[in-house]
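Exercise 7b. Backbone tokens:
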């Protein structure tokens, strides 16, 4: 137990908050059981890349139009590095500053899941892009594909705010209100903008192909990644809720303004990606529809954070509404060998997608 927390247990001492500096090690008495429940649910939610069958996708790829092949190429190029960026921030920022052993259990599990996602996307690239030069270009997408580079730079800027990049001072401990606000913005960025918008946008293209009976292997793996990412986002929002309860003064009009501006920037970055993928438009998929969808998702994220909606948009994709229903009703109803590890105990997963 840290000195700060040990002192906090003395009569009359202030109880340490979640973002107070230190390294709490004691799981009993458990201060944040919700985080522990998230960890236990994540353990039940286990899958391996070897369970994903991509054989039928190879035949489907040959049927795609040039525009659809371009979309798939860009999509797998984004996937190639997206989860690695998330994993780096998880280790460098979240694990370091969230002072709860229950939360660190979950974050350790999340890091494992990010590694599985990276393995899945590596397998996907090896299958979809047999040409060595094409694969090399995909892995270097953050450098040579402008629409992907812009999204990566957006991520790096929010990482730099805590890690001392781009002229910012490195923050080793969250001692001041300013430091904690920077951490909150980093956490919200990765939950609402990256996992909750960039990846949701990418998943939309996958489910568009699936709605047309194509690329079932990609859709299967994406289903499982989708569930993981949704749980990552829910955990992050739980952390935000906890900080709001412990330190409500951090959640003022200025934070709302900064978060809204952040989501504006994220929507625009993802819209640039949509323009790259969709070109002049494909049957049932175009930039205008993606813009409406991205704005609807951004509104959901703002509302979940307790801020007003920005756009008043609605989801234009019926196949995504079906996906939401399927994910909510079937999350823990799949056969054990397909996704969920057979375990005892009750499970609750009611978060809105």
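Sequence design result:
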């Amino acid at each position: 137990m840290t000195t700060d927390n040990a002192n906090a247990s003395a009569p009359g001492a202030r109880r340490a908050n979640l973002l107070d500096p230190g390294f709490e090690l004691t799981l009993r008495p458990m201060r944040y059981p919700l985080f522990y429940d998230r960890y236990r649910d994540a353990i039940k939610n286990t899958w391996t890349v070897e369970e994903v069958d991509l054989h039928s996708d190879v035949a489907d790829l040959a049927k795609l139009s040039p525009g659809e092949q371009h979309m798939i190429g860009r999509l797998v190029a984004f996937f190639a590095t997206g989860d690695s960026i998330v994993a780096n921030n998880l280790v460098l920022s979240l694990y370091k500053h969230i002072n709860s052993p229950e939360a660190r259990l979950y974050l350790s599990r999340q890091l494992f899941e990010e590694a599985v996602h990276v393995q899945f996307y590596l397998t996907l690239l090896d299958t979809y892009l047999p040409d060595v030069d094409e694969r090399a270009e995909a892995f270097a997408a953050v450098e040579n594909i402008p629409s992907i580079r812009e999204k990566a730079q957006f991520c790096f800027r929010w990482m730099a705010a805590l890690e001392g990049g781009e002229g910012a001072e490195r923050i080793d401990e969250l001692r001041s209100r300013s430091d904690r606000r920077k951490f909150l913005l980093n956490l919200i960025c990765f939950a609402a903008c990256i996992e909750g918008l960039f990846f949701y946008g990418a998943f939309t293209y996958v489910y568009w192909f699936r709605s047309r009976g194509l690329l079932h292997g990609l859709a299967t793996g994406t289903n499982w990644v989708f569930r993981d990412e949704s749980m990552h986002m829910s955990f992050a929002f739980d952390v935000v809720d906890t900080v709001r309860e412990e330190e409500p003064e951090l959640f003022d009009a200025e934070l709302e303004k900064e978060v809204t501006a952040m989501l504006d920037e994220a929507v625009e970055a993802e819209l640039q990606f949509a323009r790259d993928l969709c070109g002049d438009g494909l049957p049932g998929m175009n930039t205008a529809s993606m813009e409406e969808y991205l704005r609807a998702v951004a509104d959901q994220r703002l509302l979940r954070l307790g801020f007003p909606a920005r756009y008043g948009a609605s989801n234009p994709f019926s196949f995504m509404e079906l996906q939401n229903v399927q994910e909510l009703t079937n999350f823990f109803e799949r056969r054990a060998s397909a996704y969920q590890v057979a375990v005892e105990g009750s499970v609750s997963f009611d978060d809105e997608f």
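Instructor comment: The chain has a mean pLDDT of 87. Residues 177-211 form the longest helix (35 residues).
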